[in-house]
Fold this protein.
Amino acid sequence: RKEVEQDPGPFNVPEGATVAFNCTYSNSASQSFFWYRQDCRKEPKLLMSVYSSGNEDGRFTAQLNRASQYISLLIRDSKLSDSATYLCAVKVGRRALTFGSGTRLQVQP
Amino acid sequence: EPEVTQTPSHQVTQMGQEVILRCVPISNHLYFYWYRQILGQKVEFLVSFYNNEISEKSEIFDDQFSVERPDGSNFTLKIRSTKLEDSAMYFCASTPDRDTQYFGPGTRLTVL
């Protein structure tokens, strides 16, 4: 089983739609969770950390479900500029990040 | 806002040649990382560095790779004898607290 798994997509959604991505992780000792956004051939940019209580930043909401070992990202009111690949990353203790392969989102006019 | 910077943005080299990729982490950060991403694949961890020594490395980081912090600002990744399969984007990242990592723009390495 892969350490971090994501549906590769692509998710094709119209502008204004709500879209949700899930990411599952295999190591139950994982302690820190993140969503990064990556544009084509660019670096991963931190979108948000994911806390146990869930967190929201504008149109973006992240949730953590430790029992089922997954994190989710919800994007409301999608914009064309949201088109990108969304990377899930997890960390065990002080170790480095383990990334998923990413989910590609294409927002269409 | 402070950023991680990397040079060069693109490096083309012949197989068997040595390359050095350079990074300037954010100035008050203490933990530094190198990751790579082969085209179309996921971002993979190579090595982490703290207090002038390697704190963790992956299976990818074999004897062909080395890292150094030659002065107070630069953090370098050296590949001694490049192979075709080393062609990838190499990202440097830094963090003040071993938690949230900030990535540089990457160096695209092409090995011919």
Q: What stands out?
A: Chain A is about 0% helix and 55% strand. Chain A touches chain B through 20 residues (CB under 8 Å). Residues 33 and 90 of chain A are 5 Å apart (CA to CA).
